[in-house]
Sequence to fold (343 residues):
Amino acid sequence: MKEPLLTVEGVHKRFSRKPGLVMRGIDRLSGKSSGSTVHALSDVTLSVAAGEVLGLVGESGCGKSTLGRIISGIYTPSDGRVLLDGAPVAHARGNNVEKLTTRVQMIHQDPFASLNPRMKVGETIAEGPRVHKLASAGDVRKRVRDLLQQVGLEGAYADRLPHQFSGGQRQRIAIARALAMEPDLLVLDEAVASLDVSIQAQVLNLFMELRRKLDLTAVFISHDLSVVRHVCDRVAIMYLGRIVELASARELYEKPQHPYTKALFASVPTLGTGRAAFQPIKGEIPSPLDPPKGCAFHPRCPMAGPRCKVELPLLKPVTGMATTVACHLNDGGTGIKTGSHAA
Ligand SMILES: Nc1ncnc2c1ncn2[C@@H]1O[C@H](COP(=O)(O)OP(=O)(O)OP(=O)(O)O)[C@@H](O)[C@H]1O
Fold:
């Protein structure tokens, strides 16, 4: 395996909850006792090799976007570190984003919100290289036209405003803007989630084509396992701020290991495939203000045993596979054994 381009080591992210909503540990909304710290990410470790696309998948609120923003330098981790080619990524401090890394570019879900409505798309694409002095004015103009063509749009569209484009075209413009910075790493955060299914397929095909041509490295965030399948080499499944399974796309889709991953697959509608009917995952995602002890998935897990309630499972390799999984079923069973260090 190639040297990692991106290394995320033991990253935690905690947010303080707005004081008005919590009073002496009592949640005013639910009336339940809770902490005032949101544990958005806990001990996340992963790496991405140059030329690889890693998927981050999980239900809403599991920490995907927070991790994407930490990798992009937008958020600072509470603990742990993020390295690009072995060097720490510069993180924004307060409003000072000038030092923000340009080596990582993020593409967001809503291209309309992320494009300045009053700026011609050519200027939008040119802005980054101009501000960061990556090219001369003449070179930038030519590059804008080349980039528009690379994402399947006419060079002449550079003089149009964002509202003159469809959702899919706007996402192509967002991709061109990110590529204009010649980034080492792209972070795509639900980049096709707001598009119609047929347009999603076109944008995904474009991404695959650009990936091949430009040898792109990317972190691809999605809640949708069917989208990730065709795009990613490896996939990290996240639950309540932790990675619970990390596998090659092939192993994950052929032999998912974690009960949560299996539940995610079962919750995907499978029209016409002959697979069992779709079953939504039972129960609510627990609050990140007060995560359950032991395995955070145990309150919803059909396989949970006493050990799962008290002992946090760590990511460990599955025998005979490249997959790692954080589940006691992979590591001696879910019952508490005499001599176990669980307490
Ligand atoms: N700035 C913030 N302040 C406080 N809490 C936050 C902040 N950003 C995220 N969170 C919380 O951190 C947790 C993880 O959020 P995040 O947006 O990373 O999840 P996600 O998996 O990307 O979800 P979604 O798919 O809905 O965007 C959530 O409980 C969220 O409410």
About this structure: The mean pLDDT is 87. The longest helix spans residues 197-214.
